[in-house]
Amino acid sequence: MQDRERLYRTEGVVLRHMNLGEADRLLTVYTREHGKLRQIAKGVRRPQSKKAGHLDLFARVSILAARGRELDVITQVEALDAYTGLRSDLDLVGRAAYAIELVDQFTVDGESNRELYSLLTQTLDHLSGGLDRRSVQRHFELRLLDLVGYRPELFHCSRCGVEIQPEDQFFSYEAGGAVCPKCGPDETHKRPISMTGLKVLRHFQRSTFEHAAKANIRLAVHKELDRLMEGFYNYLLERRLNSPGFLRRLRKIGRVQPPSEADIEIEERE
Fold it and tell me: Which pLDDT score is estimated for 45?
C-alpha cells in the first residue's frame, strides 16, 4: 500500500535537463496533472539505459515516478510524441525553445495549469506539423499572457482609458498595453507600435489559432512584434530571455542545417 502511494503516473513535456553525477540526469518536466516538477532519471546516461531515448528536450512523455524526500525518481518512461518534425530545422528548434523557456519562467513547482499544458503541447505540435511558425509563435505569446494573468490591454489606452484610434500608438510595458499618443511620451518603458501591429495583436488575442492563422501578415510586421513581445516578456520577468538571441544569431548567419544536441540545449548554456 505504501509503494502504491509513493508511485504516481503523469504526462509531461521535458523543459530542461542537467547531468548529475556520473550517470544520472536532473530533469525539469512540465506535467499536465502536477505542473512543473524536478525529477531524477537514475542511470539514464549509461549506454544500456532504456530511458535515454525517451527523455529528450521538448519530448512529451508518460512518466511513472516514485516520490522522494527532495526529488522524485523516474522509474519508467514512455515517449508519447518526440515532435520529430521540428528537430531538423534550427529555426523551429529556437521557437520551441522560446515556448518552453517562457513556460519554465512563468511557472512555479507543483502548481498545475492544464490549460497552459495544453497550450504548450499544441504549440509544439503545430511547429512540428509544419504550420506557419510565426503565427504559431504569436498565438502562443498572446494566449500565455492570458493564462498567467498579464493579458495586455489593446483596445483602450492603458493610462487614460480612451478608446484607441486608428493611428500609430505606443505599447507600455509598465502599463501593460497600448498607450495613446497623448500619454505615450511620458512612459519610461515603452515601444512605438504601428496600427497594423496593434491590429495583429488584437486579432491573435481574440481568435482561436485556426482563425488567427488565416491572416496574411507581412514579415516586417512580425519582426516589429518580435521585438515588442520580447521586450514585454523581459520586463515582466525582470531578466533577458535566452532563446530570442539564439534565433537572431541563426538568422544572421543563415544557418539551416539540422541541429546538433548542443544546439537543442541552448537554454542550458546561455
Answer: 82
C-alpha cell of residue 122: 499544441
Compute the distance between CA of residue 246 and CA of residue 54 in angstroms, rounded to an integer: 25
The answer to whether 11 and 46 are in contact (CB under 8 A) is no
DSSP state of 52: G
Task: Specify the domain boundaries for CATH 1.20.1440.120 within the chain.
Answer: 85-269
How does residue 52 score in pLDDT terms, banded at 50, 70 and 90?
A: low
Nine-digit cell string for 215: 491572416
CATH number, span 2-81: 2.40.50.140
Domain with CATH 2.40.50.140 in the chain: 2-81
Closest CA to 171 of 200, 149, 148: 200
For 269, residues 6+ apart whose C-beta sits below 8 A from its C-beta are 262
Planar angle of CA 174, 219, 103, nearest 5 degrees: 45
Read off the pLDDT band of 1 (50, 70, 90): very low
